[in-house]
Design a protein that fits this description.
The complex is a heterodimer of chains A (188) and B (160).
Chain A (H helix, E strand, L loop, with lengths): L1 H4 L4 E5 L4 E3 L2 E9 L4 H11 L5 E5 L3 H8 L6 E3 L11 H10 L2 E5 L1 H5 L3 H20 L3 E4 L11 H8 L6 H20 L2
Parallel strand pairs in A: 1-3, 3-4, 4-5, 5-6, 6-7
Antiparallel strand pairs in A: 2-3
Chain B lengths: L11 E9 L7 H24 L2 E6 L2 E7 L3 H9 L3 E2 L2 E2 L1 E8 L2 H9 L5 E8 L2 E8 L3 E6 L7 E5 L7
Antiparallel strand pairs in B: 1-3, 1-6, 2-3, 4-5, 7-8, 8-9, 9-10
The chains are: A alpha/beta (188), B alpha+beta (160).
Chain lengths: 188, 160
């Protein structure tokens, strides 16, 4: 209900069956926190057909390259937490070729202050430069755990502007999860 | 000191924000401190001076924030980073940006916006039913000091 009032027509939620509630389309997302490729493969198998989206936490460079090339991975999340050099132009090109989206996490921009937020802004700006150059898909996430963490599209555009993203790019990124879910339904 | 001519005054913009959760009633001073902290941490002291944020109104679930014209984007970014006012977890949802307070007040008075309180009895207990914008109804138990919150929608019935 809050999502609808915030002007969102759809959202991806972990551990929730997909469907439509109060006019908001819910995409079921599986968030994979595994730190090894083997663990990710096992989690993807366990996930089966039950989820609309598979989101995997970023790791080091080798992990990221391996995960991007896995079938069934939709989004690589929390890139700002990855060590330096974990996401390079090579990984960016692979993500563009494989249709894997990268997530811009807005949660640390809201909750962090000082240098931790500055580091996240730097990381997001670097990722945005790569995105503009190589054209991989990207998503914008609030990673909300309650309605208080939820932000409406206007606020998300204001937050993404902090690291240089244009409003059109933000709106396009907000539409990416629906596109990924549609792709997953079409290609089982 | 004579007042300045209208053409010489600073141009202002006004932002209307809804306070979430709907039952939160933060003090204007606490809201002002939260807004200033958010603006200063994000844009620094010089940025905050250029934005010149001010909280004009804080009532009925809304906050009206003022800034200089052409700094709306900066203050919108700063307001989106507010997650706490005082000790309470609160969010300010931006509803409208306008050049006049008239438009802000008109939006505040629109039907369905804000909230209305009605007294209801449910299972022998007295509640304040706070009907927020949309279909949501929050029931606040009256007999306790710390409010007990029960979440209902109009679909649940019995609270209308």
């Amino acid at each position: 209900m809050e999502a609808r009032e915030a002007g969102l027509d759809s959202l991806a939620a972990a551990g929730t069956p997909s469907g439509e509630i109060h006019g908001v389309r819910i995409f079921s997302a599986a968030v994979i926190h595994e730190q090894t490729v083997k663990g990710v493969i096992a989690a993807l198998r366990a996930m089966g057909q039950g989820s609309d989206l598979a989101l995997v936490d970023t790791g080091d460079q080798g992990f990221n390259r391996a995960v991007i090339s896995l079938r069934g991975v939709d989004v690589l999340r929390q890139v700002h937490r990855a060590p330096n050099g974990a996401f390079t132009h090579v990984t960016a090109r692979m993500a563009a070729d494989r249709g894997v989206a990268l997530e811009f996490d807005l949660q640390p921009l809201v909750h962090h202050r000082g240098w931790p937020r500055q580091r996240v802004l730097q990381s997001h700006a670097r990722l945005l430069r790569l995105q503009r150059r190589y054209g991989f898909l990207c998503t914008v996430a609030t990673n909300a755990r309650s309605m208080l963490d939820l932000r409406n599209p206007r606020e998300m555009a204001a937050l993404t502007r902090l690291f240089g993203m244009e409003e059109e790019e933000t709106m396009s990124a907000l539409a990416t999860p629906a596109e990924l879910a549609r792709r997953r339904r079409e290609v089982p | 000191m004579p007042s300045r001519l209208p053409s010489q005054r600073d141009r202002r913009r006004y932002l209307l924000c809804r306070v979430l959760p709907g039952w939160a009633e933060p003090e204007p001073r606490a809201v002002f401190h939260a807004v200033c902290e958010a603006v200063t941490t994000l844009w620094g002291d010089t940025g905050a001076a250029a934005i010149a944020p001010a909280v004009l109104d804080c009532s009925r679930g809304y906050v009206v924030v003022r800034c200089r014209r052409n700094t709306e984007a900066q203050i919108a970014g700063a307001l989106a980073t507010i997650s706490r006012i005082g000790d309470d977890r609160v969010a300010l949802r931006q509803v409208l940006t306008s050049g006049t307070l008239h438009a802000i007040r008109r939006r505040m008075q629109e039907g369905g916006a804000g909230w209305t309180d009605t007294q209801v009895m449910r299972e022998g207990r007295a509640f304040t039913a706070r009907r927020s914008a949309g279909q949501k109804v929050d029931l606040i138990a009256e007999e306790k000091k710390s409010p007990e919150l029960l979440f209902f929608t109009e679909d649940d019935g019995g609270v209308s």
